[in-house]
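sorry for the late reply, my laptop died twice this morning and i had to redo everyting from scratch. anyway the thing you sent over, i finally got around to it. pasting the sequence first so we're on the same page, its 144 residues, then the predicted structure underneath. double check i copied it right bc i was rushing
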Amino acid sequence: MGKYEPLGVFLREQRAHEVPLTFHEIEKITGVKLPPKAQHHRAWWSNNASNNVMTKVWLDAGFESAQVDMSARKLVFRRVAKGSEANGGIAESVPKPYATRDGRHPLRGALKDITFVPPGVDLTEPADPEWADLLDKKYGPETR
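ok and here's the structure:
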């Protein structure tokens, strides 16, 4: 068991979608002090699996780091998938709370068929032809 594995165990036990933690709380959970890079470099908390050993722990637990506040020394772990151990190594996406049965957002297509372009209207035509004349006067015709 790696030195950061207690964090993975802790995250897997959480039922909340978001788990806010301070750096000090993470140190208490793992029983080890965070490295200096974790204290001073935002990139250490990125969700790149090849970033560091601890990143793999929270990703394997089904979480990603978010809202990292280096000055306040805190962050939020947000659930993104079920842990790989629970699914035989296959992570599943957590369904979005607003998604319909087919997985789409309910507003997708809500504006369909409410816009009408009358016949004979050229959408590529300038909306205000005088505007081009003003630009030509101010900047010259070659700037367009």
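The mean pLDDT is 81.
thats about all i looked at so far, will dig more tmrw
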